[in-house]
Write a structure and sequence with these properties.
Largest sheet: 11 strands, mixed
GO molecular function: ATP binding; protein serine/threonine kinase activity
Strand content: 25-35%
Radius of gyration: 23 Å
Helix content: under 10%
Family: Belongs to the RLP family.
Number of domains: 3
Organism: Citrus sinensis (Sweet orange)
CATH architecture of the largest domain: Sandwich
Keywords: ATP-binding, Glycoprotein, Kinase, Leucine-rich repeat, Membrane, Nucleotide-binding, Phosphoprotein, Receptor, Repeat, Serine/threonine-protein kinase, Signal, Transferase, Transmembrane, Transmembrane helix
Shape: globular
CATH superfamily of the largest domain: Galactose-binding lectin
Distance between the termini: 53 Å
CATH topology of the largest domain: Jelly Rolls
Number of helices: 2
Pfam family, one: LRR_1
CATH class of the largest domain: Mainly Beta
């Protein structure tokens, strides 16, 4: 393993001479260039981790010979070409992580085929994670009868309806199909999935009634940003641990406010400013401006309403860590010396998507200022200095920051950066969404350390 050593340059071809090599882990470095086709001769290779480098080119066709492969990870790179169908030759494969690698879709259904290896059906596929995949639209891939524990196909441009066979995959612990273009009803046989630990259908086009089992006994389910039409659940943005924020069709709603907040009575005088200390207590900063507290408990599928005119929707849990209860507020790990440091002592975190939603706002043009500081990683020679946080930011549905790296933008860790934007309020609401598109490190300093982070938000006309 050469994990996180700041190694640069291409992968040496001579590694292919180590015929007994079983594990080649080079993730979290700065390797670049194309992968040597000679690596395809490592017939004993079982684990190949290439994530978070700068690799380019197509995956070598010689990799088809790596039939002992069990764990393959190539996220956060700059590969080209399509996901290769030769993956179906890896009949012992248990873990496949492609988040986002540069490869484009659609996902070839052939890679899920049960091929025979020495006369035996061997493909296990316990963990499948493919996310943020560019390419043409495609229907849901045929997964076959796989006993998976993690099925993540997030933001893969998948269209059509949810396949009923997913309801038979009762071994699942995580089912994440968020931010696709899935439509239609949730199949009736999905009630067999009530013991799945996490279900994310966020950001699709699902319609019809929400199945009663989800509202009555489902746990950690996120249905936000869909087009459901069931009026019985429409009056609440949160039911138990089910996030219903913006999950219903707008219908004849002329107010612009999401339906689950429609019963909220706006004051006669609308709000024309908003200041939030994300993840922290109420403070005064920027002179005499009061920033509201945001110490509310968040989770993998939660919507929280503040005491004034904004709410917070949080989607996602931090994968692979051993912590029973995730924390969604980060506290600084070193001394902060910037002005108004009280805004940056704490920050709000999310594993996938984080939305701040302001309402009862007066219409007009506003300046939105987003305050950031990287307060988890360090700038010394410790392991935590290898961390890299990358995410996207949307305002009013428009992408305003792509691949934001706070540390790079601010010129180091523990330093503040304020990003100003102009945005219009036309229906009394303002939406600011942060989204983790699968880039950056995910295990530094600990497993599960990744995702969008924000310190404060200010909104003024």
């Amino acid at each position: 393993s050469l994990l996180a050593n700041r190694l640069t340059g291409p992968i040496p071809k001579y590694l292919a001479n180590i015929s007994t090599l079983v594990n080649l882990t080079v993730q979290y470095n700065q390797f670049s260039g194309e992968l040597p086709e000679e690596l395809g001769s490592l017939l004993n290779l079982e684990k190949l981790h290439l994530s978070s480098n700068n690799f380019t080119g197509e995956l070598p066709k010689t990799f088809a010979k790596l039939t002992n492969m069990k764990d393959f990870r190539i996220g956060d790179n700059q590969f080209t070409g399509q996901i290769p169908s030769f993956i179906q030759n890896w009949t012992k494969l248990e873990k496949l992580f492609i988040q986002p690698s540069g490869l484009v879709g659609p996902i070839p259904s052939g890679i899920f085929s049960l091929e025979k290896f020495n006369g035996l059906v061997c493909m296990v596929f316990l963990f499948l994670r493919i996310s943020d995949l560019n390419g043409p639209e495609a229907t849901f891939p045929q997964l076959g009868n796989k006993k998976m524990t993690n099925l993540i196909l997030r933001n893969c441009n998948i269209t059509g309806e949810l396949p009923p066979y997913l309801g038979k995959m009762t071994t699942l612990k995580v089912l994440d199909l968020s931010f696709n273009k899935l439509s239609g009803h949730i199949p009736s046989n999905f009630d067999d999935l009530y013991e799945v630990d996490y279900i994310y259908f966020t950001g699709n086009l699902l319609t019809g009634a929400i199945p009663p089992w989800m509202l009555e006994k489902g746990d950690k389910i996120d249905l936000s940003y869909n087009n459901f039409t069931d009026g019985s659940a429409e009056s609440s943005c949160q039911k138990r641990s089910v996030n219903l924020f913006a999950s219903f069709s707008k219908g004849n709603n002329s107010t612009g406010i999401v339906s689950c907040l429609r019963s909220f009575q706006c004051p006669k005088t609308y709000y024309y400013s908003l200041h939030i200390n994300c993840g922290g207590s109420e403070v005064t900063a920027n002179g005499d401006t009061a920033f509201e507290e945001d110490t509310y408990e968040a989770g993998p599928s939660t919507f929280t309403l503040s005491r004034t005119n904004w709410g917070l929707s949080s989607t996602g849990h931090f994968l692979d860590n051993s912590i029973k209860t995730d924390t969604y507020i980060q506290t600084n790990t070193s001394r902060l010396l910037m002005s108004d440091s009280q805004l940056y002592t704490n920050a709000r975190l999310s594993a996938i998507s984080l939305t701040y939603y302001g309402f009862c706002l007066g219409n007009g043009n506003y300046t939105v200022k987003l305050h950031f500081a990287e307060i988890l990683f360090t700038d010394d020679k410790n392991f935590s200095s290898f961390g890299k946080r990358i995410f996207d930011v949307y305002i009013q549905g428009n992408l305003v920051l792509k691949d934001l790296n706070i540390e790079n933008e601010a010129g180091g860790v523990g330093k503040a950066i304020v990003k100003p934007f102009s945005a219009a309020v036309t229906n009394g609401t303002m939406e600011i969404r942060l989204y983790w598109a699968g880039k950056g490190t995910t295990e530094i300093p600990f497993k599960g350390d990744y995702g969008p982070l924000i310190s404060a938000i200010s909104l003024n006309p």
